[in-house]
Amino acid sequence: MSLLVKPCNFCDRPVAKGSGTMLAKNDGTVLWFCSSKCKKNMLDLKRDPRKLKWTKKYVKGGIRKK
Asked: Which stretches in the chain have pLDDT values below 50?
């Protein structure tokens, strides 16, 4: 029995098998969300996860450019 663990597309936390939300877009991309909080922040509010302290993608001191 394997556990399907995907990272959340917004906060980068793991989404275990049987939990979270999967969204399939018209262009064929699949988005995984661990909670409705992440889904609303990404799709409805269009926020950048690098600017929010509660996400794992947060960058202290501002967003760095490559």
From this structure: 1-2
Does the reported pTM lie above 0.85?
no
Q: Which residue ranges are tagged as binding site?
A: 8, 11, 34, 38
Q: In the chain, what are the domain boundaries?
A: 6-46
For the chain, state the CA radius of gyration: 13
* Residue 33 contacts residue 39 (beta carbons within 8 Å): yes
Binding site per annotation, positions for Zn(2+): 8, 11, 34, 38
Q: Give 7-21 pLDDT, tens digit per residue.
A: 999 999 999 888 999
CATH top class, domain 6-46 = mainly beta
